[in-house]
Amino acid sequence: MTEKDIILVIDDEIQIRRLLGITLDSQNYKTYFACDGKEGLVAAATFHPSLILLDLGLPDIDGQELIIKLREWYKKPLIVLSVRKSEEEIIQALENGANDFLTKPFRSGELIARIRAAIRNSQEKEESPLLNFGSLSIDMINHVVRKNGEIIKLTATEFSLLALLAKNNSRVLTHQVILKEIWGYGYHEQTQYLRVFVAQLRKKIEDNPASPSLLVTESGIGYRFGN
Description:
Rossmann fold; 4-stranded antiparallel beta sheet; 8 helices; 42% helix; 22% strand
């Protein structure tokens, strides 16, 4: 973490703002608050936060719409904190551009861990051509993957899938987003097709494919690379 990473909290609940203020201050983050969507847009443009925490139930604009507006120009991590917990809401938020989704009430320790991972990954993402994850390295230019120094043979599709997930390290990608990115719109409903490729990839890169630590399943939603 840098000296003072800036977190913008967009939430209309004063109790949540107070709780987050205490929690984030204890971790040496500089925190700004906005009570509604309009104020949040202004604050994001003014303070250039390292990360935004966003509630979906705002008084003036629905949080899903706000994510879309922010993603027109805001490229850093955005985590949704919401009482809404239906699979449809979560998938929609992720497809609109959220990096992560936690339901209220949330555990402070888990939230801080997600924030740290999101900020760290966005800082590392200043497009290094070589991505390293423990014993696994991915050469994005030459399309070479190594584990413990040994080259792993991947098909072109397997590499594309791995590269997409690794570039979005710690971000949940929905089945539909992955299928559209790798195979195109005609495959956006073929989740079983995706499962087959993920299983093949796990056999090649995971220490224990039955208990994966790199290609993590988000049940009913999609996949996350890393913790």
